Each structure stands twice: as C-alpha cells, then as structure tokens.
Amino acid sequence: MISGLVQILLFQSIGELVSKLLLPTLPGPVIGLVLLVGWLVLRKGINPELAAVADGFSQYLGLLFVPAAVGVVLFLPQLKANAFAIITALVASVILTIGSSAVVVRFLSKRVSDE
Amino acid sequence: MNEKHSIVEIWVYLSGSPLFALFITLAAYQIGLTIYRHAKQNPLANPVAIAILIVATSIQLIEMPYSTYFEGAQFIHFLLGSATVSLAIPIYRGLDSLKGRSLPLIAALCTGGLVSIVSAVEIATLLGADSSITGAMYPKSVTAPIAMGIAERIGVSPTLTAIFAVSTGILGAILAPFVLNALGMKAWWQRGFAIGIGAHGIGTSRAFSIHPEAGTYASLAMGMNGVISAIAIPIIYHLFNK
Hints:
Low-confidence stretches of chain B: none
Oligomer: heterodimer
Low-confidence stretches of chain A: none
Structural class of chain A: mainly alpha
Helix content of chain A: over 70%
Helix content of chain B: over 70%
Distance between the termini of chain A: 47 Å
Shape of chain B: globular
Order of helices and strands of chain B: HHHHHHHHHHH
Radius of gyration of chain B: 20 Å
Strand content of chain A: under 5%
Number of helices of chain B: 11
Order of helices and strands of chain A: HHHHHHH
Shape of chain A: extended
Largest sheet of chain A: none
Radius of gyration of chain A: 20 Å
Number of domains of chain A: 2
Distance between the termini of chain B: 62 Å
C-alpha cells in the first residue's frame, strides 16, 4: 500500500516539476499520468501494490471533488439566473456528444473491417 | 449559563480544526453511497451529487463560510492530483483493447470532444449565459479531477467546472442508453466508448454495470479524453477567446 502511494506521489512530483519548468499549459498530474503510462509500458506490467492504490482511488474518485464542488454555494445566484441556459446546454451537449462519437466509431470500424 | 458557554467553546474548537470539515464530507459521501445502493445504482441517486447537496446545505445552516469549510476539507481536495496520476492504471489496462481499433477510437474521441465543447458553449451563449459560465463548460466532458486542472490553467472557475462535469456525467449516464438505442448501436465496445467520451467517470461506472466490455472501453475513452483535452482545451479556449 505504502509503496504504491510512493510511486504515485513520485510520478505526481515529476509531473509538477515538468509542468513548472517545461510545459506550463499542462496540469502537473496529467503529465505524471502520461509518464506513468509510459513507465508501465516499458516495464510491461503493474505491480500489485500500485494496482491496489489506483483501484482504491478510482473506486472513491467522486469523494475527492466534493470539497471543490461545495463551492457551488458561492455561485447560487449566478446559476439560478442562468438556469435555463445551463440546463439546455448541458442536456443537448451530452446527447450530441454521445451520438456523434457513436456514429463516428461505428462508421470507421465498418470501413476497417471491410478492407 | 456556564454549561451553555462551554458547549459553544467546544463547537468553536471543533469547527476551527479540519476535523469537522473532514467528518461532514466523509459522512455525507457515506450517506450518498448508502442511498445509491438502496436505489439499485440508479444514476439519479448519484452519491457525489447527494454528498454535495448535504454538505452545502449543512454549512449554510450553521452559517459556516465556505472558505472555513474548504480549509479543513483541502486534505481531501489535495488527493485529486494523486487520483489523476493513478488514472494511468486503467488506461494501461485498456491499451490492449485499443489494438486494431485505434483509428475509429481516436477519430471518435476528437469528434466527440469538439462537439461537446462547441455545442455546450454555443447553446449557452445563445441563451444568454455570460463568459464565466460558458468558459467553465469547456472541460465539462472531461473527468472531474482533470477538468478542474484544465479550468485552473485557462482561468475559469474550477468549482463551476466540477458542477458542470458532475451534472454532465449524471445526464450522460441517464440519457446514453436512449441515444445509443435510437442510433441502433449494437457493439458493446462502441457503446462503451461513446459513453466514456460523453459522460466520463459516472458514465463509465454505469457502463461497467451493464456490460464489462462496455466498461473497459468507457474507462479507456475517459482516460484518453482526459489527456487529449488537457492538451487541446487550452489551445481551443484561446482561439475562441482572443
């Protein structure tokens, strides 16, 4: 468990360093993620300690953004004033996003299997 | 009188330390999880949404300023970065499923990502929302930890982004089966991938509960969408907001 956490924090720190020094537009943790995928590909496997920590995080991922999302109390008047625009945009956008992704993936995989 | 005084003192002590914020956040999430299980994992009973509702209502009832709450809850918030790094594991596990299907999947990812941004921003602008709201909509189809990182980089509110991302996930998990059935989508991997692009983590857990292959592809889509969006959204945002 601890060794898994050490590996995650190590890659997070490297990511933050790279973000500060070389790639300021990318968030540090995302760089850490990419580097960790690369490392796993090189090593051809995930050690069980790392898998245990990662699975724990992904199981309770939702808990981690509660503190920031509670900040919604500061935006209530603004959200109420724009409620119709926000709800319409979110509903229409999610339907269009899922629909267009599905159509593209089906169309292109048909062509691949025809060839 | 004296007794009342000491209760007030204990209260001041507890609310001053991180203990109260940590307790209320974890307890609210636990309540959310319990309700979610009793509702047979209905996406409407999303545990994150329930937890946000409980905590927001509670701190308003006891008139605790948000900044005081966040000071304590920041220990949970800090772990977002580590959780983002650990998304590498599901991506690595999904890499095998990518073989031979990478072209359709990457093309779908780029299309879905662009459609998500353009449709949300254009519709919200058309209906009169201001730029602080439309700006926070750019990363709404990205998994919340990465979305909030992107929001910070482009200078919009991470809180609004988190709210929009959670709402999008819930809406996507509810609406995806109808959209995909209407389009006559049959292959599980294609259905899963489309859900992962549109509805990130909440859609992915719904996909896993329907079919394991759909879940694997949904989590792969979610991870890849996070990485590509972190690179592309700052560029797109600056193109649209010169």
